[in-house]
Write a structure and sequence with these properties.
The protein has eleven helices and 15 strands. The chain is α/β, with parallel strands linked by helices. It holds the Pfam family ADH_zinc_N_2.
């Protein structure tokens, strides 16, 4: 086996998109029990934005290639790997390395792409689906017919959550940020009597509007599970909307994402606003949790990467659900990573954003 020249997107120093640059380097042959993937698509996640801007703590020090998921073709194999893998269409998760045209990854985290799925769909599937499945099943302890509030329901994770919840016969209120997204979800799920959708803004009356929306599909009036990827002004309304024994699962903080220019040196005002939001971020008293008999829990999916057995168990559980592949996918070219992340953070996107790699 030989080395392979590849293009990568590299964060030289976290804190600014001025330090996010494309380079060429030599990728060594795959080590034992690894495969080399000729990458066809790279999936974007909010963690990528936070990583580049230095807002993501679960990363190693120094220079880093972002990216948590990909799809492609197995080009070569390391020792201990069956030759049956060669040429197979695959997808998988990675721990910060997938913004590259070729990657070496442990074969235990690689899955074969279903014959009836495109490479775009395969790339868009793993991170968002694992995220919401873990949130609903492992932390939320989802049961049939429970009431669930899903924020950012038209995003990649939101759509994946709706797909899972429809399989579980849950009663769902989903929130979105724009009227166009509301129309899209009503068109897709309008015939499902257990699903209804509302605008997230304005936050000041969100709690009342969420209760009214739930009354359309359930007389209980409160939620068993809230999936919160936004936080900020919605944290306390989310908490108040929980039933006794309800679970608020926090897995994102979109409200803390800088909303201005991705070159923050020229847009310091947005960083001042971000710092203010951080100082006044929600805090909760453990004594109040006991008194209210509610649960607030959070997680970062990257820590599951350290447990091969557990992650593969979740993949297998998802396989048995026979979910449809992701259907809302926005494509950018690999060289347009900054433009793609800019669009992602704008809040205008629906579904998943992927980078197409041309070879």
């Amino acid at each position: 086996m030989t080395t392979q020249t590849r293009k990568i997107w590299l964060v030289e120093k976290a804190g600014s998109f001025n330090n996010f640059k494309q380079e060429h380097e030599e990728l060594p042959p795959p080590p034992p029990k690894h495969v080399r993937i000729k990458v066809k698509f790279v999936g974007l996640n909010y963690a990528d934005i936070f990583l580049v801007l230095g807002l993501y703590s679960a990363v190693p020090e120094g220079k880093l290639i972002p990216g948590l998921e990909y799809s492609g073709i197995v080009e070569s194999i390391g020792d201990g790997i069956s030759e049956d893998w060669l040429g197979k269409r695959v997808y998988g998760v990675s721990r910060f390395c997938s913004y590259a045209t070729y990657i070496n990854v442990p074969v235990t985290y690689v899955k074969k792409t279903p014959d009836n799925w495109t490479d775009q769909q395969a790339c868009a599937y793993p991170v968002q689906t694992l995220t919401v499945y873990y949130a609903l099943e492992e932390l939320g302890r989802l049961k049939p017919n429970q009431n669930v509030l899903v924020h950012s329901a038209a995003g990649g994770c939101g759509l994946a959550a709706l797909s899972i919840l429809s399989k579980k016969s849950a009663k769902v209120v989903g929130t979105v940020g724009t009227s166009s997204k509301l129309d899209l979800l009503n068109q897709k799920y309008g015939e499902n009597p257990k699903f209804t959708f509302i605008l997230r803004e304005p936050a000041k009356d969100f709690e009342d509007r969420a209760k009214q929306a739930l009354l359309k599909i359930d007389q209980g009036g409160l939620f068993d599970i809230v999936l919160d990827s936004v936080m900020g002004d919605w944290f306390w309304p989310n908490y108040n909307l929980l039933k006794k024994e309800g679970k608020l699962v926090v897995y994102g903080s979109a409200s803390f994402t800088p909303t201005g220019n991705l070159h923050p040196i020229s847009d310091i005002i947005h960083w001042i606003k971000l710092g203010w939001k951080y100082i006044w971020r929600p805090k909760i008293d453990p004594m109040q949790l006991m008194q209210d008999n509610k649960t607030v829990t959070g997680f970062n999916l990257i820590h599951l990467y350290e447990s091969e057995e557990r992650m593969n168990k979740l993949f297998e559980q998802l396989r048995t659900l026979e979910l449809d592949p992701p259907s809302k996918i926005n494509e950018f070219e690999f060289d347009q990573a900054v433009e793609a992340l800019t669009y992602f953070k704008s809040g205008k996107s629906v579904g998943k954003i992927v980078l197409r790699v041309q070879h």
